[in-house]
Amino acid sequence: MYCLQWLLPVLLIPKPLNPALWFNHSMFMGFYLLSFLLERKPCTICALVFLAALFLICYSCWGNCFLYHCHCQDAALPDTAHDPAIVGT
Q1: Global pTM?
Q2: What is the tally of structural domains in the chain?
Q3: DSSP of the chain, one letter per residue?
C-alpha cells in the first residue's frame, strides 16, 4: 500500500470554483495520473483501490470529481446534506 500515498492527494485536491479553470485542473490531474502510472508502476491492488475510490467519488455527484465533463453537472445535493442535525455531528 506504499503506492497509495502518492495517489491519495489526487482525491483530496478540490475542484476549482471557477468553471474556467475546470479544464486546466482536469488536464493537470490526468497528466499527473498518467505520469505516475508510467513512472512508478503501482501494484495492481493499489491501482484497483484508487480506481474504485475515483469511480465512487465521480459517481456520487458531490462535485469533487476532477473530470471536466461529469455525467451529473447540475445534480443537486441530497436533502440530508443541508440538515443541521447531521452537519453538526
Answers
A1: 0.64
A2: 1
A3: -TTHHHHHHHHHSPPPSSGGGHHHHHHHHHHHHHHHHHHT---HHHHHHHHHHHHHHHHHTSS----SS-TTTTPPPPGGGG-HHHHT-
